[in-house]
Amino acid sequence: MVGLVLGILPVALLPRLPGPWAPLALAGAGLVLLAWRGALPRLTSGLALGVALALVHGQLLLERRISDSCVGEPLLLTGEIASLPRNTLFPDGRGRQRFEVAIAALEPRRCAGPRRVLLSYYGPAKITPGDRWTFPVKLARPWGLANPGSFNLQAWYAQTGIDAVGSVRGGAATSLAVRHSGSADLASLPNRLRQQISERIASLPLTPEAAALLRAVTVADKSGIDAPFWTLLQQFGINHLLVISGLHVGLVAGAAYLLGGTLQRLCLLAGRPAHALPAILALFCCCAYTALAGFSVATQRALCMLACFLVADLVGRSSSPANNLLLAAALVLVINPLAALGSGFWLSFSAVAALLWLARWQRGWRSWRRALSTHGFMSLVMLPLGAWWFGGSSVVAGLANLVMVPLVGLVVVPLALLAVVCMYLIPIAELPLWRLAAWPLQQVLPLARTLARDSNWFYLQFQGSLADVLLAAIGILLVILPLPARARTLALLMLLPLLLPPDYQAAFPSRADPPGMTRVTVLDVGQGTAVIVRSGPRVLVYDTGGGDPAGANMADMVVLPYLRQHGAVAVDTLVISHPDNDHSAGAATLAAAMPPARVYFGGDRVATTGARPCLAGQAWRWPGGQRFQFLSPLPGPTGSGPSNDSSCVLQIEAAGFRLLLLGDVESSQERELARYWGSRLASDWLLVAHHGSRTSSSWALLKVVRPSVAVVSSGYANRFGHPHDDVLARLGQAGARVYGTARGGALEFEFVPGQPVQVRRRRQEHTRFWM
Fold it and tell me: Rounded distance, CA 724 to CA 667, Å?
């Protein structure tokens, strides 16, 4: 099993897969080695079989992906709803249901291949798990943004088994009244029950936040968790409570085991021995709750470990917790070799491994000391794990979890599950139980919001390297050993590289930049724009990408993680080219997290407090010699467009190069720029206007600019068709080498005096076979 786990894990990091001969050869070698005795042959056999299994899984995954020729083409999809729909209500009142579909047919047949797709539906029909529908759709490959320090959505698609993503065209859908077989009904039953329970909780007379948390811990439905509520829980380090964890599954198993023991004694009094009843009842309840949780990785791990313990109890044998954990890891990875791509796998198994390590040294301790040391130790363990997976950790997590973990685990979850049982068996007792489960949440959550509003230091950002994280983890493991106090203090000092503030980390860079270097990074923000210009400690941000200005946006998901990973603690200048959402949605978020010294905006809407409109001719310099100047808006009217022609056009002179950032100006404004500035407009590097729209990048502009490098910031398979073929043709004829964020991910350009421009493409430098 050790070999199997170690063989499966690294395959996910391969940039490409070998041919089909490789898994066959490895599987054959592994089976031959199984016949040999000894630890080394068995370990080697496990390694070979693990690699073979992961390679086969990867090859099947790639074969099911939708072909490029079918991306964006109108298709007709027939299939069965295979997941709990996630409902989202947008600020404009539109609703969206997002769900997975197991495909039965896909027309035209040449596009057949995907088995499971993730669809977004904006129509009025209610989507129910297990129902069969026909949807007119447009599909794309399971794509995600590729940026340093950001969440990798493509990894989530790969580990979830999503073969394509798309949306239902025009909100049209046809329900198919087809009778299911008994096995099909049984397979969809958990998700049907989850939807019923979630809708029931949502209809209760509770506060929205309490209802959202109850839906999360009862049936793993996070539809009610908006961005502000998630941020609140993150500040206190309790957002893990939104996940149905192994702790909850263990509590259910313990309660069922105790109930089974009581029933067993009653059976004995009646003269009917039932020795297996406690274990069978506990195993049944574990399986049921894991199904309600949607078979998440944490619950799979808990179910495997508990099943080992309960089966051993049934057959009268003992079981080792460490062996159970190893078996659980092996089973989870055999079922899904790409499960290790997600944080859930590592957080779940690391937490249990840390608890087992601690228990080894707690023997003979008093119960109160064991409880406090366990809580403190796990709070320390979360520091390196949180730094690696989430880029930070809450400094009040220890105190918050000391209150919330027992409250949710011992009060809220048991009452909520009793309410679910009463929902189907004793309806009269259901509502009081829901109210009892929600009451402590309705008291605690408003208090937490008040505290978080008055304190902005609850959550600290830790952007440690892999070496920093590993060093901190080793130090934490050493702290609990029976060592002298001086040695434990030295072990705690191993956390310092991870906990140093970003400004201290920036004072000791991993490599010195050449004199006069300027870095320009065009971040991958989908159909939007976000550009970072850096030189030493100076940072300029040109646009912040799209999203929800009051909720999740690209500044929070992409721009800020990038800046923090590179040691930035402040923004020198923020430029919002114009008020369109795909350029300005994250302005307030960025300004709140890293208040800029100066803010400029284009158009007629103020980006943030203290912002000034950009005007042609405004200029400034950085100490490194970089010169910035606005070339537009020009004096006079800004054209006929709603806001595009009011974009702040910024020209940068750095390291002997000229860079031109055009915002979304249209061809009419481009002609005005060419007429007004003439040869002064000439630039070596060009951020293509309006994401490569056909209405921009006119010959009038390109003949004057004459760029050698052109960059298009656009979304993969976007509905606008950006960049347009005519624009790419014009750029090619102008002699420009074109780079795009849609295919290359984040693009980083290094400008050094006297040297050619160096380009790094995130997607090519960090490619994986599943991307």
Answer: 14
Q: What's residue 737's pLDDT?
A: 96
Backbone phi and psi for residue 622, each to the nearest 5 degrees, phi listed first: -105, 160
CA dist 662 → 384, 684, 688, 696, 742 (Å): 41, 14, 7, 10, 19
Rg of the chain's alpha carbons, rounded to an integer?
29
Domain end among 64, 94, 109: 64
Extended beta strands in 38-131, E state: 74-81, 86-89, 95-107, 116-121
Nearest Cα neighbor of 603 from 651, 551, 641, 554 is 641
Q: How many domains does the chain have?
A: 3
pTM for the model: 0.87
Residues 679 and 541 in one domain: yes
Whether residues 25 and 134 share a domain: the answer is: no
Q: Is the separation of the CB atoms in 175 and 125 below 8 Å?
A: yes
Nearest to 299 by CA among 286, 287, 308, 290: 290
3-class secondary structure per residue, 652-710:
EEECCEEEEECCCCCHHHHHHHHHHHHHHHCCCEEECHHHHCCCCCCHHHHHHHCCCEE
Whole-Å CA distances, 339 to 325, 326, 463: 15, 15, 24
Do 600 and 695 share a domain, yes or no?
A: yes
The length of the chain in residues reads 771
User: What is the C-alpha separation between 459 and 463, in angstroms, rounded?
Assistant: 13
| Triad 516, 521, 522: Cα angle to 5° | 145
Domain that holds residue 95: 68-178
Tell me, yes or no, whether 302 lies in a domain.
no
CA of 10: how far to CAs of 6, 18, 143, 213, 674, in Å?
7, 14, 22, 36, 53
The CA distances from residue 11 to 345, 652, 694, in Å, are 16, 43, 42
In 3-state terms, what secondary structure has residue 84? coil
Domain boundary pick from 14, 35, 64: 64
In sequence order, the 6+-apart residues with CB closer than 8 A to the CB of 348 are 245, 246, 297, 298, 301
Report the first-to-last Cα separation within the chain, whole angstroms: 28
Main-chain dihedrals φ then ψ at residue 503, nearest 5 degrees: -70, -35
CA distance 219 to 194: 6
Give whole-number Cα distances, 296 to 201, 291, 378, in Å.
21, 9, 21
Same domain, 17 and 163: no
Contact 455, 473 (CB under 8 A): no
- Do 537 and 642 lie in one domain? The reply is yes
Burial 2-18 (b: 16+ CB within 10 A, else e): ebbbebbbebbebeebe
User: CATH no. for residue 141?
Assistant: 2.40.50.140
Same domain, 79 and 43: no
Q: Are strands 74-81 and 95-107 parallel, antiparallel or unpaired?
A: antiparallel
Same domain, 713 and 698: yes
User: What is the domain-level CATH number for residue 595?
Assistant: 3.60.15.10
Quick check: is 77 in a domain? Answer: yes
- From residue 711, alpha-carbon distances to 240, 273, 485, 747 in Å are 40, 76, 57, 9
pLDDT of residue 533: 97
Q: Average pLDDT by consecutive 10-residue portion of the chain (771 residues)?
A: 95 93 93 89 95 96 92 93 88 85 93 93 90 93 91 90 91 72 71 92 92 91 85 85 78 86 87 84 88 80 83 81 88 92 86 86 81 82 82 82 87 92 92 94 90 76 78 87 83 82 57 82 96 94 92 91 87 94 92 92 77 92 94 68 81 95 93 92 96 93 95 92 94 94 95 93 92 87
